[in-house]
Amino acid sequence: MMSADTMTATKTMNMIEAINSAMDVMLERDSNVVVMGEDVGFFGGVFRATAGLQKKHGKTRVFDTPINECGIIGVAVGMGAYGLRPVPEIQFADYIYPGLDQLVSEAARLRYRSAADFICPMTVRTPFGGGIFGGQTHSQSPESIMTHICGVKTVIPSNPYDAKGLLIAAIEDNDPVVFLEPKRIYNGPFSGYYDRPVEPWSKHAASAVPEGHYRIELGKAATVREGEALTVLAYGTMVHVVKTIVEELKVDAEIIDLRTLLPLDIDAIEASVKKTGRCLVIHEATRTSGFGAELAALVQERCFYHLEAPVERVTGFDTPYPHSLEWAYFPGPVRIATALTKILKD
Amino acid sequence: MPETDRRPASNLQPLSLHIPEPRYRPGDTPDFGDIVVPAVDATPRPGEATKPDAMRDLCYGLVRVLDFDGQAKGQWDPKLSPERLRTMLRYMMLVRAFDDRMFRAQRQGKTSFYMKCTGEEATSVASTMALDRGDMCFPSYRQQGILIARDYPLIQMMNQIYSNRGDHLLGRQLPIMYSAPEHGFFSVSGNLATQYPQAVGWAMASASKGDSRIATVWCGEGSSAEGDFHSALTFATVYNAPVIFNVVNNQWAISSFSGFAGGERTTFAARAVGYGIAGLRVDGNDPLAVYAATQWAADRARTNSGPTLIEHFTYRSEGHSTSDDPSAYRPADEASAWPFGDPIVRLRQHLETLGEWDGERHEAQRAELEDLVKTTQKQSEKLGILGHGMHQPFETMFQDVFEDMPWHLKEQCAQMLAEQEAKFGPDWKPE
């Protein structure tokens, strides 16, 4: 799994520490990298993702910003035009909307509209998803809004090792990347059972993270579990949830962790679905026009004659993310088991 | 009873909603006699490091240098050499000749769209001339004067307007949305005021690198209502960014007068007050005042003394673009009633007063520039005009979405090339 340049010392890290380490490595390697966002400087971020970085790299490299997402992303576009490589944090993905015009109409189109006179090598980091009692303004999953923009890459890691390698690749990428961090699994993988104790990352193999620089190429999925009965297409938190359920139910599922939604690893998807003949797509985001719709369409376009059952979607509901009824909303064990039964019945 | 039909409690005055309305509509006789025109030497010039709260009066006054008799007066006189003044006049005249020609080209069906800056030439030409060549300009859509004042090749502007084979933007952008990095001219967006925070980001980057270059940005008074404008001013004041904000208050945003951006209540320069930024309100039709204000702001930015907001008080003499008819929403002769005259006429008058210019030279220069524009236009049209053939290889549509083309775009590109072959046969080449 590790490439040659990753043969450095490893350390046990949770996802926050791995993300912090990626920024630390890049701040060290490239004097054009700057990290900014609300509360990211002295305090180190509300989720601690930037803890210690200002002290180590200085105030002009890692700094707090006004509470103004339009400004954060707009300023980052200008910094990119100057030649910097900005890594802005949007404190919650739910807050990205005031900055969306700068992302959609500016960052994403700058290379195109200027025929590469100007580029936007920006990585917007932002925590997303529910499962932490964040209510409807701290739980959203806006990934399909991002993948619908032409000119932005969308990356979602599911473990510490991937998070660091993908974030480094994103920062080094010469195009804008939205790096969505599944905040429910910052501190440990999630089984889908909210009433069970949280397992820390230290018990998981992917918490062994090289301390130095390594990259995981954007646009490459990972096979989390090989299987023959069906293919599950997942990303972020849902990778762990669905893995728990299929193992409990002893379903021989092949789980593909997409890791990058755009550009998508279509070859991995096609190969797996053609092998298993069944496909379940799963995400926490709302159902209608969700990324699962795109996945289902691609699978039927490319694998129709290999399919033995309709593609199934397991998703959040088309409602705002409720506060007290969070676990009724979340696509957890019951919803997944029902879909598995349906897709495997013939 | 629905809430919308509620009557006020009996002894209270009913509230009323104010919808701004310009004073003059088509058919009215415009009279701007009530616009306060301070004496040309009435406005003191503070030091460039003056604290914003000590110079608030400048947000409500008017920086002027040229009086209406062509004399330069007062503390703001930049005292430019006659040679420099002639260069400024030449650039402004070239902008006007270029605008007239390109407007006509659009009317002749050679392109889809054009925007003139008639009457506002000073706000970009004189402003650019007061900057250093390395300073970065983030224009809105009406700052062709920046490119002209930086000697950008006219033919490249025309090629872009025609979206022809010579257009280095590959026909992707609406006419006049130029991009010229070597000339310190940022890619024009078309979305309004988005360039404002971007200019601040560029300026912050320059400051963080210990560079000496500053950023400067333009928007209209209408788009100063956008959130991006306020985001930019917030970031600029927080980080003391070396940036100059220009608000070209030309009174009209398509058909909406400045009242719809808050102009009935205060000046646009006064937006600076709430942010603790230096603000200057300038006669935008006075090229020397524009030059002097920009020079002041540039010196301020370059010495880490902070950003400046400059309101250029001017008038949009023609339509917003080729797509609107201003006689439908304002008096046809409103421009001629504007009390600040025309910037080219005023600079010419000044040079003539100095004995450094005359009618004969002026007419000769006008003819020369018109000829230059016409000759360049012919060269550009040899590379194609919009709508007469397709000038770019189809696959350029898919390039530059990303640095490397991902599989889904390669697939869509292949699909489009198959469509091309079906429509035009296998031997089609860009025209």
Characterize the structure shown.
The complex is a heterodimer of chains A (346) and B (431). With 346 residues, chain A is of the alpha/beta class. Chain A has helices at residues 15-29, 53-57, 69-82, 100-107, 110-113, 143-147, 160-172, 237-248, 266-276, 291-303, 326-329, 333-344, and strands at 10-12, 33-37, 62-64, 85-89, 123-128, 153-155, 177-182, 208-210, 222-225, 230-234, 253-257, 260-262, 279-282, 312-314. Chain A has two domains: 8-210, 3-Layer(aba) Sandwich (Rossmann fold); 222-345, Rossmann fold. The mean pLDDT of chain A is 96. Chain B contains 13 helices and seven strands. With 431 residues, chain B is α/β, with parallel strands linked by helices. The model of chain B has no long low-confidence stretch (mean pLDDT 96). In chain B, α9 links the parallel β6 (278-283) and β7 (308-313). Chain B starts with 56 loop residues before the first helix and ends in a 7-residue tail after the last helix. The chains are: A alpha/beta (346), B alpha/beta (431).
